[in-house]
Structure formats: structure tokens, C-alpha cells
Amino acid sequence: MERILITGALGQLGTELVIELQNIYGVNHVIVSDIHQPLHNHFDGVFLTLDVLDKPGLKEVISKYRVTQIYHLAAILSANAEKTPDLAWRINMDGLINILELSREVGIKKVYWPSSIAVFGPDAPKDQTPQHTIMNPNTIYGISKVAGENLCSYYIERYGMDVRSLRYPGLIGHRGLPGGGTTDYAVEIYHEALRNGKFTCPLDKHARLPMMFMPDAVRATLELMEAERSALTVRTSYNLAGISFTPEEITKSIQKSIPYFQTDYQPDFRQKIAASWPNSIDDSAARNDWKWKVAYDLDGMTKEMISHLKVKKQAINVC
Ligand code: NAD
Ligand code: AKB
Questions:
Q1: Are both 163 and 269 inside the same structural domain?
Q2: Which of 33, 43, 230, 264 has the most beta carbons within 10 angstroms of its beta carbon?
Q3: What is the pLDDT of residues 55-88, one digit of tens each?
Q4: Is the pLDDT of residue 248 over 80?
Q5: For the residues 147-156, what does the mean pLDDT come to?
Q6: In a domain, 28, yes or no
Q7: Ligand nearest to the CA of 42
Q8: Ligand 2 binding pocket, CB closer than 6 Å
């Protein structure tokens, strides 16, 4: 019987992944944790306040709940990381090494840890960025993700552990709000389209970035975690491709449902980060090894985002 611990579970990804993991393993087999308390009673089952820098606290939880798998999501994302690089490094790196060390000590069966397209810096090929290529990230977030990937690979090689990872593109979902990334604009734009009919974009209108709708990202995560270990050839983190688009293109997609919607552009420090990242990703290793296939395109995602956010807005108006 599996018992799953999720760290950083109140974030954009955790909010969605918890629901699917609870569906698979049962509500009482998923231990939901974050450094913060939930604002609303989001989740059924066990919620714990847990700081990933608190190694003894983590150890106690792992042992008390006889945890068998860990999804380690706690992190500081790219835009926030540039504001406090020292804190971002500590949370992203010390948090990961705490999880890997405790997993080694107690024999956790599988660890999931997300990486990011941020591992690629300005020297990497921009289009269809390959799985294995020059990386040289120039953000503290990207540097922590490259180091984290190598750390995971080290624990796999040295201790025979089963650690799995995906390099997510920017994730777009309607359940959780994003937590300080460069790609957050692609979530905020939908909220603002419905709220105000206009949006001020912090990126340039032509800033093309790899993105993915949340249901695809959650499915990719679960498919990777369920894949036969012997099929996995990438020990660091798998490239994962969804949709690549610019702020101008997502605006046009939204205008198909909300014709009066307008975006204006006031690029800030996030544009420099975006400019250092790929335009699109080659994920053939994921497609070959565990048969990954994306489902949503830009207009498909836009339709779903608008219809779910409209329902949410109506519910708020009724309250
Ligand atoms: P998020 O910022 O929305 O959530 C991160 C969560 O971690 C927050 O709820 C925060 O409270 C928690 N946290 C921060 N410090 C903590 C600590 N010391 N101890 C415990 N919890 C702590 O991020 P997300 O979008 O949910 O991302 C989850 C993971 O996926 C991260 O590793 C991120 O790098 C990766 N990722 C996300 C995206 C994306 O577009 N959202 C893309 C690529 C990779
Ligand atoms: C960010 O923008 O920091 C994240 C990511 C792509 O890792 N969304």
C-alpha cells in the first residue's frame, strides 16, 4: 500500500496533483504539506505544515506516516528567485538534498522532483531545444534546477534510488494561482480577460515560450511515475513539450471568445529571463521512452480556461 508525501502542495502544481493522487491512492494515503496553511479547506485528508528546510521535521513525518513515495514540489520560482537568490538557492537545493538524503536513509521507493525549461540559458539552441545540449542558465532558478538534476542523477547512480523528473514548460491551470514565475502571465491573462477585458503583459508581445495546460502536465507526471524503470534512459530530467506561443498569440486565442479583450505590453525584468529561455522543446526522449503525447493545443486550452474561470467567477458573484 503506497503512502505519498507531497511537499509544497499548496502551489499551482500541487493543488492539481493532490486531487489526482488522492483519486489513485485514496484520500488517506496522500499526505499534503506546505510551509503555509491553506486559506480555505482545499483538501480532504491529512494536511501538515512542513518546511522542507526542517530535516528533523521531515524525518518525523516520513516515519510517522510510513511514507513510500515523495513528490517534492516546494520551490521558489524564477521571478521570485531573482529577488532573493540566497533564499531561493537554500529552498531549492537544501530542500532537495534533505528529501534525497532522508529517502536514501529510510528506503523511499520513488521520488518525484520537477525541473524546468529554465535549465536552458541563452547559449542553448532556441528552437526544438534538444534533451542533451549546452545549458548554461543565467538565472538562480535555472542554476538550482541544473544542480538539482545532477544531484538526482547522482543519487540514482550512487545509491540505486528511483528518482524521476520532468523539465516542465510554463504551466497553465485554472485551480491554483501561479507563485512567482516568468510564465505566470499566461495564467493571469485569462483572469484579467474575464475580470477587466484588458491585460498589461510583463513580457514582450513576441516572447515565445514553451507552455503546457495543467491536465497534460499532471498526466505526464503520473505517466512518468508509472513507467517501467527499465524504460527510462534519462537520469537527469526529461524534456517535455506542450504548446509554444507568444503573448500576442494567446491574446488572439482569447479574442476568439472575448472579442473586446486587449493586451498592452510593459516588459519588466521578467522579459530578460524569458529571452534567455527556449522558444520550443524537443521531447522525443519522453515520447520514445514512456510514450508521452501532448493533448491540448492553444485554442483547446483557452476554451477550457475561459469556461472554468467563468464558472468560478459566477460562483464568487453569487456568494
Ligand atoms: P508554486 O510557487 O505555485 O508553489 C510552490 C509551493 O512551495 C508554495 O505553495 C510554497 O508555499 C511552497 N514552499 C515554499 N517554500 C517552502 C518550504 N521551505 N517548505 C515547504 N514548502 C515551501 O510553484 P508550482 O508552480 O506549484 O511549482 C511546483 C514545482 O514545479 C517547483 O519545483 C517548480 O520549480 C516546478 N515547475 C513549475 C512550473 C510552473 O509553470 N508552475 C514550471 C516548471 C517547473
Ligand atoms: C517559471 O516561470 O519560473 C516557471 C518555470 C518555467 O519553471 N513557470
A1: no
A2: 33
A3: 999 999 999 999 999 999 999 999 999 999 999 9
A4: yes
A5: 98
A6: yes
A7: 1
A8: 77-78, 116-118, 141, 170, 181-183
Q: What residues form DSSP beta bridges with 69?
A: 4, 110
Give ligand 1 pocket residues (Cβ under 6 A): 7-8, 10-14, 34-36, 51-53, 73-75, 77, 91, 95, 114, 116, 168, 170-171, 178-181, 183
Number of domains in the chain: 2
Q: Could you tell me if 275 and 176 lie in one domain?
A: yes
The best mutation among 5, 7, 13 to test binding of ligand 1, ranked by most ligand atoms within 8 Å of the C-beta, falls on 13
CA 302 to mean position of chain CA atoms = 19
| 142 within domain boundaries | yes
Contact 92, 141 (CB under 8 A): yes
Kindly give the distance from the C-alpha atom of residue 85 to the centroid of ligand 2, in angstroms, as a whole number: 15
pTM recorded for the entire structure: 0.97
Cell numbers standing for residue 29:
494515503
Q: Is the pLDDT of residue 42 over 70?
A: no
- Is the Cβ–Cβ distance between 224 and 164 less than 8 Å? yes
For residue 75, the enclosing domain spans 4-117+133-169
Q: Which residues contact 215 (CB under 8 A, 6 or more apart)?
A: 16, 295, 296
Q: Are residues 143 and 267 in the same domain?
A: no
pLDDT digits (tens, 9 = 90+) for 86-114: 999 999 999 999 999 999 999 999 999 99
Mutate to test the pocket of ligand 2, among 78, 165, 184, 213 (most ligand atoms within 8 A of CB): 78
- Same domain for 54 and 197, yes or no, is no
Buried b (16+ CB within 10 A) or exposed e, 122-133: eebeeeebbbee
Residue among 172, 8, 128 nearest 76 (CA): 8
Mean pLDDT calculated for residue range 29-42: 88
